Amino acid sequence: MRLLHLASLALLAACSPATEERAEHHGPEQVSASDLIYCDDVEQETTLRDCELAGLARAQSAKGLATLNYSRFMTVGEASSVRLVIDRQAAAQPVASSDAPAEQEPSPAGGVGSDGQNSQAPDRETPSQEPESEPEVTETYHPIIGRFTSVRLEGTDFEISPREAVTKEIPREGQAGWDWTLTPRREGTLTFLVVTNVQFRRTDGTYLALAQKAEPYTVKVGVGIFSRIRVALDAAPAWIKALTAILVALTGLVGAWFALRKVIRNRGAPPSSPDDSVGD
Quick one: fold of 55-106+121-223? Predict the structure, then answer.
């Protein structure tokens, strides 16, 4: 029995350092200003460990295959679905240099040509035979992605839900998806942006962006019959109130007219004689 007790103490002593090491690793890290260095990969001061993680994340980032599905024609006030799927398995060679713009990286092997000549031109693959009148379209492009990637939609002429960027982990041989609802506020030809950020996870568990790319997409927005009625009502509250006041006044005038006719009719009737009410 004594030997069993001693063995238990020895086993507990052997496990204690590992437990404390894990606790120190996952616990909050106390960092002083003297421990910070300027990190070129994130263009701000970080700890040496975070800068190393940022460099590793940048070295492992690559162009992935993004597929965006949206409606080319929308209606004011009506929500439309937007879905983005990013495939990491189709990623190209890692981005080797942090000094080179993301748009100047070579295109994936076997893919469509890159946009190295113009960083503003979207690097997309759009079927040329696709009819212009097709409401639902699917377009592909090649954003710079990493293990952790955040995506958000931007557009001042739209109500977007969710509006905040959503960070997801993309498996090495898999993909991740994002979904939004897009509601136009006005009619016309409007543009929204799909903003993709490569991120890395710091030692404290928070995320920091490394690279960003924005892809513009244009839609045509019309006004439906119900939207036209709603817009007209919202744009003309003054005359609606005036018309309501006129209708109320006319209703009161008609009521007063019928009441006056009743009074006049009663006054014009001959008074009844007392003798008529007394029998012979």
Answer: Immunoglobulin-like (2.60.40)
